[in-house]
């Protein structure tokens, strides 16, 4: 192999994997350590890669807040492939798409992703995080807490030993989690989009159907802001049990439609929307003729009969941006300001909404 | 020059400038167009750069939402250096640091930045933007409107012909600007930090001094949230004229300190804080003995006597992230979700605050 080919191979390895040990490169390139070191020094002098203890990393001088190319640094990546941990509350609803986005972005950046699932159990959450950080040896953490972080999370979050990005959770103003980086869907904006779609179709009285969840308050906030700003009437207190809509709850919805002039519903989440549509049909309520329905989350909305118009949070992008932010933080270090990133959902019109 | 050196030179040019015309490279590398094309094809086949019409660009497959390396794309960058426009309301207060951050990041990414200043004049703002987009030929825009965008900005913003990132302005929920990308300091968090610092020093009754500005509502929001959450008393209605604190306004502050039990002030902005400190000293009020002061903005706070504890918004990082987001948008296109990024301010303790 000629020197030029070696250089290209080295650069490709670094580009693909983010960081590589010299011992791995020796094997991969098939030269002596002496030759490899000379190649690496040469490429580093050209600014094409960066020497770190025991290995090389990609040059990332194009990131905001990153040091100039000539500033000596010791990236947190060290000399091995970066390993990051990810803890989500569910591996079946909503989070599969977030995980997929995170995995793909980690692969692009040459990092390894280790997954933990808390199943909305707070003790399990603490345990999983401890295991990821201690046992799994992760260098950074993507964390979706089982509920919105509050004062009770203070000591735990402050004691985390690795840089952490909060995912799909919003820290209260000034609360202990507000000093973490965070990436989340802008659910208030998403709910606003859903109501605006209904308002554009001529609906004037709209109700929101929701179950208790860490996300519900933000969906409700957007729903109520939209009612106010768009001069509509309606209310947000039709509830759904954790087990799905009960007989009484379906009755409440039927009454809202038949007796209280409600012509459209925003239903969060959309698994409940699918069930609700079935119950309403059994009760003789036709969709979208009698009531238009916008589902929130877009997990299964397209599979309903009729397919449900839905607000789709950018789940995959949330995962990707969270990985990107965490790896920036690990690469650049603490000197750039913490950031909270909100990604905007989109509306996907289908057959469950029509002009009033 | 050997082929290896040529390749390195080409990669360095692309790395430094983001995108380069082939005609420029021919001159720079000093070879024939035939040789250059062969080199470029070779490097492109290795995935080390990307061929576009008339030139080459850096490979950016590591961005969230970016296409996979093997997907054919036509980056918005075309075959010339990217030119982006930036419109700010002031080139003397606050924005110099934002501009500096933007300029440095643009240089890192090989883009050219063209600046316009509206001087808080809305007609001037519209004119400058039209000139940047039409006459200046900018491909993207960083926009700080003279006031918070509202419904009246709808048609204008929708009619902008280039991707636009809103800088240091927050779009109202569902408003016309909410569909733009946005980067801003998290001023509510900043104000919270200032009040928490005072609370930690034992102050129980804190007043906020402010002038009308697009930023003031967010600072007030954080101030009031902090009073509530930290169980303090105080108020946010001590005003300052556009020309600086008037005689009566200084009198109001003196009365708050001498007659109403106020022991600490949050003053927004910090040019006013500096003036207020001088007036208070003339009135015989000693700082920090009689009243502690936290300035908001940290433009001139360190120059005051005594140097003022201040909340520092991450101005330079806001400029850098805005450029980064705009160039991602120009490179990746519209398929990734819009994002709103909030960057957290920090507290810089100096001599104007002390334990009560």
Our count of domains of chain A comes out at: 3
Largest sheet of chain A: 6 strands, parallel
In the CATH hierarchy, what is the architecture of the largest domain in chain A at level 2?
Answer: 3-Layer(aba) Sandwich
Strand segment count of chain A: 15
- Assembly type of the shown chains? homodimer
Description:
Two copies of one chain form a homodimer. By secondary structure, chain A is of the alpha/beta class. Chain A starts with a helix and ends in an 8-residue tail after the last strand. The model of chain A is unreliable at 67-79 (pLDDT under 50). Chain A folds into three domains: 1-79, Arc Repressor Mutant, subunit A (Orthogonal Bundle); 83-186 and 316-345, Response regulator (Rossmann fold); 187-313, Rossmann fold. Chain A contains eleven helices and 15 strands. The longest helix of chain A is centred in the last third of the chain and has 18 residues, at 315-332. Chain A is 40% helix and 19% strand. In chain A, α4 packs across α11 and α7 packs across α8. Chain A has a six-stranded parallel sheet, with helices on both faces. The first copy, chain A, has a six-stranded mixed sheet with strand order 10-9-11-12-13-15, sandwiched between helices. The interface between A and B is large, with 52 and 53 residues. β14 (339-343) of chain A pairs antiparallel with β14 of chain B, so a sheet runs across the interface.
